[in-house]
Each structure stands twice: as C-alpha cells, then as structure tokens.
C-alpha cells in the first residue's frame, strides 16, 4: 500500500488524566509502526499536556501527533474561556479539528467563525481538519482558500445521520460527496471520512482513491478498538 492514511482519534469530552495515561499505556503495548497510517489524537484542552507527556514517556513522538478539538478565532485579548493558536503550539500541538458538527449544532458555530478559525490555525502552522456535512459549508471554505490554506487544510466529511449512530454512510455515497468537494476546493485538498467508523467497517472504505484518512470518534475511546482500526488499515 502506498497511501498513508491520517487517522485521528477524536476523544471528544470523555477523558481525564487517569484515562489518558491508561489509554497511552495500553496503546503502546500493541502499537506497530506502519507506512499505511499516521496517527493523531485530539483530547480536551486540559488533557493536551498530559497526553504529550504520556506519548513522550512511551517514546511515541515520531508516531503520534497531538491535535486540539478546537481553536479560538481570536488571537489574544479579552476573550474569556478561549484558547488561541499561540497557546496550542507552545505545547507542541500539530493540528486542530475545526467546525465539528457537534460544535455547529450545540454551540452555534457559524461558517464565518469557522473560516476565522481556519485562518488562525494556518497562521500558526497548525493543520486545520475542517468538518463539513453539506456543500454550503464547503462553499464557505472556498471563499478563503488561499495557497497557504490549501497547503495545510484537510476536509473531514461527516454525514450528520452517521455520527455516533452506528450507521456509517455507504462508501459509494462518500465517494460521490468527496468528488464534489474536490470539484469545489481542488483535487489537491485531502479529504477524510468520519461517521461511525470502526474496525468492522473500515475496510469498506479502503478501496476509495478519494479517502485520505478517517476521523474516529466512539471507536477511539478504547485503545484496543482504535488499534483494531489501524490493523485493518495496515492489512489493506
């Protein structure tokens, strides 16, 4: 296999210090390096330094990157509760999930705010993994797609009906959607899939030339479940 998939574990609001250290310990016991994937983990802000320390102690720095689950559209100032790009990079964060459907739905994130976050992430050389569920959201991104953003951005297609439902989108429909996304943003923009991805269905998506990785939610909470996904990708 000559493709390296970006596989992101999105822990959402689930882990604490003990869980984080336990997860990395169990992961390290059975993790195997592979040219078939690059792993990233996105914990809550509070667990970022804990995760980075655990990864370092497990000697996994070359194999596992740490992403954030969000970034502020503001650089600094009177914005209580926000976390900026300069604060993320000083901890060694390499990328950030932006515009997840849960944030759009429950926290009212708009296309304008998401575009501002994309630009902020790019300014600090963080990889923006931007989640979209429809073509309107993709069109909004196209309005700010400079060469510098195009060089860094990853688009994660997450159909609303598939997220956390246990019912992933069909590979055929995912390919249809990703084809249209690339028509809007350009063939060079990597596109990944997220939505009830697990070890039982991941192989269904590996024949697609358009899928460059996976955004894994529920199946990333238990380290063995996530390792099983990596094994399937390695096996092809």
Description:
With about 240 residues, the protein is α/β, with parallel strands linked by helices. The protein has a single domain, classed as Alpha-Beta Barrel (TIM Barrel). The protein has 9 helices and 8 strands. It has helices at about 15-30, 50-55, 85-90, 100-105, 110-125, 135-140, 145-150, 170-185, 225-235, and strands at about 5-10, 35-40, 65-70, 95-100, 125-130, 155, 190-195, 215. It has an 8-stranded parallel beta barrel, surrounded by 5 helices. β1 (about 5-10), α1 and β2 form a beta-alpha-beta unit. α1 (about 15-30) runs parallel beside α2 (about 50-55) and α6 packs parallel to α8 (about 170-185). The chain is globular. The N and C termini lie close together (about 5 Å).
What is the name of the CATH architecture? Alpha-Beta Barrel
Tally of alpha and pi helices: 9
CATH topology: TIM Barrel
Helix vs. strand class: alpha/beta
Instruction: Tell me the CATH superfamily.
Output: Aldolase class I
Runs with pLDDT <50, length 5+? none
Strands, helices and their partners?
Layout: E1 5-10, H1 17-30, E2 37-42, H2 48-57, E3 64-68, H3 85-89, E4 95-98, H4 101-106, H5 111-123, E5 127-132, H6 135-142, H7 147-152, E6 154-157, H8 171-185, E7 191-194, E8 213-216, H9 223-235
Parallel strand pairs: 1-2, 1-8, 2-3, 3-4, 4-5, 5-6, 6-7, 7-8
Features:
eight-stranded parallel barrel, TIM Barrel, alpha/beta, about 240 residues
What is the gist of this entry?
The chain has 236 residues and is of the alpha/beta class. 38% of the residues lie in helices and 17% in strands.
């Amino acid at each position: 296999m000559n493709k390296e998939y970006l596989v992101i574990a999105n822990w959402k609001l689930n882990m604490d210090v003990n869980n984080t250290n336990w997860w990395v310990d169990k992961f390290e016991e059975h993790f195997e390096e592979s040219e078939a994937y690059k792993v990233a983990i996105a914990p809550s802000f509070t667990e970022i330094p804990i995760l980075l320390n655990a990864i370092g102690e497990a000697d996994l720095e070359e194999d596992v990157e740490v992403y954030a689950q969000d970034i502020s559209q503001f650089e600094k100032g009177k914005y209580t509760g926000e976390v900026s790009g300069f604060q993320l990079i000083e901890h060694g964060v390499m990328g950030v999930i932006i515009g997840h459907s849960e944030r759009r739905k429950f926290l009212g994130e708009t296309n304008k705010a998401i575009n501002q976050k994309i630009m902020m992430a790019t300014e600090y050389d963080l990889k923006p993994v931007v989640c979209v569920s429809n073509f309107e959201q993709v069109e909004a991104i196209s309005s700010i797609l400079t060469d510098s953003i195009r060089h860094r951005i990853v688009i994660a297609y997450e159909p609303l009906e598939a997220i956390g439902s246990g019912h992933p989108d069909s590979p055929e429909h995912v390919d249809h959607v990703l084809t249209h996304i690339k028509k809007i943003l350009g063939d060079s923009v990597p596109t990944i899939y997220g939505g009830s991805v697990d070890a039982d269905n991941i192989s269904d998506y590996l024949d697609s030339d358009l899928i460059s990785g996976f955004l894994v939610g529920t199946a990333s909470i238990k380290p063995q479940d996530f390792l099983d996904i990596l094994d399937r990708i390695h096996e092809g």
